[in-house]
Design brief:
Shape: globular
Number of helices: 12
Distance between the termini: 43 Å
């Protein structure tokens, strides 16, 4: 018998936080965007945003909007963005104008205030990686940078790829530095990231029986065109041309 789906994924993190507070990982099985396993529904999204709003959900209930995550992430990211801009802009007074342009002239502002779980997650990832980049460029706090990459990865798994440029920045030290000193930050970044990857592996195994199954392959999706694209494989190279078009060319 087909399950009639209701609702949208707009309150996904609130539902996840409510379940976590109740000691469960599942949500209602008759919701959009869930993956249904053994009659139980699970959102495939990373758990960090839901964990962060658990105190608010415990106090205010299910009315906590995604903008709490998005705006909070934007506020947290602003000092990091300003520090990055001051490194590159010769006239530091202009860095403030570039910061305004970076926020108001890009999707950042829209993503922060849109009550949408996808945008909220992207904002959280952007904030974490901005601070990880600051630490890496300044050559300090390698463990903290690893933790930030881990938080980003446990929000959106593909953000784990930031491990590569972050560690390369730490390795970009004067050649006269001892080899052990050059590799010590890489070990620290790895130590910061590893617990979050292990947590994700446990989280996936507890829900889907495999640490490598995030749920996106099992997710209930409603649009025929999206179903057709997923049929090509989640990581198929056939997705590259369209993604590159939208990333580099489309308005």
């Amino acid at each position: 018998m087909a399950v009639r789906m209701r609702g949208v994924s707009g309150d996904a993190y609130t539902r996840m936080a409510t379940s976590f507070l109740a000691g469960r990982l599942d949500v209602a099985a008759n919701l959009h965007d869930v993956a249904i396993v053994a009659g139980r529904g699970y959102y495939p999204f990373g758990p960090v945003p839901a964990v962060l709003i658990m105190p608010l959900v415990a106090v205010f209930g299910s009315e906590v909007p995604n903008t709490v995550i998005g705006v909070g992430a934007l506020v947290a990211a602003l000092p990091a963005l300003l520090r990055l801009l001051k490194r590159e802009v010769p006239e530091r007074a202009w860095a403030w104008w570039w910061l305004l342009a970076a926020v108001a002239g890009t999707p950042l502002l829209m993503c922060a205030f849109a009550d949408n779980p996808y945008y909220a997650a992207h904002m959280l990832v952007a904030a974490c990686l901005a601070w990880a980049l600051v630490l890496a460029l300044e050559g300090r706090g390698a463990l903290g940078a690893g933790i930030l990459v881990g938080l980003a990865a446990a929000t959106r798994l593909d953000a784990a790829g930031a491990f590569i440029p972050v560690t390369l920045l730490y390795l970009n030290r004067p050649a006269r530095a001892p080899a052990a000193a050059r590799w010590r930050p890489v070990v620290a970044v790895t130590a910061g990231l590893a617990p979050f990857l292990l947590l994700l592996g446990w989280y996936n195994a507890a829900r889907f029986g495999s640490p490598l199954e995030s749920g996106y392959a099992l997710q209930n999706i409603q649009f025929p065109w999206l179903i057709a694209l997923r049929g090509q494989g989640l990581f198929s190279v056939r997705h590259l041309p369209e993604n590159l078009y939208y990333f580099l060319i489309a308005g």
